[in-house]
Amino acid sequence: MSFRLVSDSDESIKVNxxxxxxxxxxxxxxxxxxxxxxxxxxxxxxxxxFNQINRFNRSSSIRTTHPDETxxxxxxxxRQGSHAFSYGNTFATTRWKNIKLSELxxxxxxxxxxxxxxx
Length: 119
Fold this sequence. Notes:
The chain is an alpha+beta fold. It is built from two helices and five strands, in the order αβββββα. The chain is globular and about 45 Å long.
């Protein structure tokens, strides 16, 4: 039992590191690039607490709008014990993507988020 607690704590530390070094910088660059592509990020919510709707322990939700009234939504988050970040549209069951903590990198995350939210 104590091993499980240590393991969960180690994973939480790794998640915080990845969040600060990869996820947040990718989201900040996405926010800067949105205006260049004619999009507006009108909702950006960053949570460090449990989210009852999608069961994430840490998450960010983003909503982009385009002048032609196109709206796109995406949530990226981490569920304790999953060993991966998940992201996709919370109102859809398809196109969700899981990336193992060890495989997450800035370039691929930024590219995929840009494709999903700004194209």
